[in-house]
């Protein structure tokens, strides 16, 4: 028998018995239920466990919604700060907050710097399923260049070392299998503690620095 199952069963059983002792277990039997005491206890335990599971699922769902809304607000604040920083550096950015306009919660925000509709920046969160960062959650800033391999992506890679030196950190690419589908991005990964600690100032500065470090090279490649 699975030791994890036994451990969980014992934990739930002890919790159930405590709730019974406190009078918190609701008795809800059908009229034709057997009166056997052992079976009654088992049925009580089953009903209690089902209710407990439903409550936990509801709490998890609410927590997920709250976290998503909180992250959405965090991103809006970061973008507002980054826009101000970049404006002071002579760079204009544009973005649309669907949460502010329509009340739609977003986990990614797209940032327009160029007239090109398919080259843009975005900020969101990610948890890589493969590669060296597998399983860890990050705040990520992407430079999206999908479908522009020869014109933009490959030439920009020649400047990658210079950009990384300026930023003081390495940039990530998509996995080869993803790039093979025409998705070309450079990613700046930040530890998710930045979000948990609500460090909007740091996130905004990193976003602004990333845009400022990459934009001139993109302009040279004709992205305006």
UniProtKB/TrEMBL annotation:
Q: What is this protein called?
A: Uncharacterized protein
| The species this protein was found in | Desulfallas thermosapovorans DSM 6562
Organism ancestry: Bacteria, Bacillati, Bacillota, Clostridia, Eubacteriales
